[in-house]
Amino acid sequence: MASYETFDVAVPEEFKGKLVPNDEVTFWEIMSDKVIKSVKKA
Fold it and tell me: The whole model's pTM is what?
């Protein structure tokens, strides 16, 4: 299911400096916390 909602999330160390606008991220929502799990480059 696609969602285009906007929210703030902490960027894990492994992705710092690697995210750019239009990248697609996969995240998990665990007990109301969102965690970035992977990044697909635009």
Answer: 0.72
Is the separation of the CB atoms in 26 and 14 below 8 Å?
A: no
The residue type of 13 is: E
Mean pLDDT of 9-31: 92
The torsion angle over the Cα atoms of residues 28, 39, 6 and 11, rounded to 10 degrees, is 80
The residue among 15, 9, 17, 7 whose CA lies nearest residue 39 is 15
The answer to whether 39 touches 25, Cβ cutoff 8 Å, is: yes
CA 10 to CA 24: how far, in whole Å?
A: 15
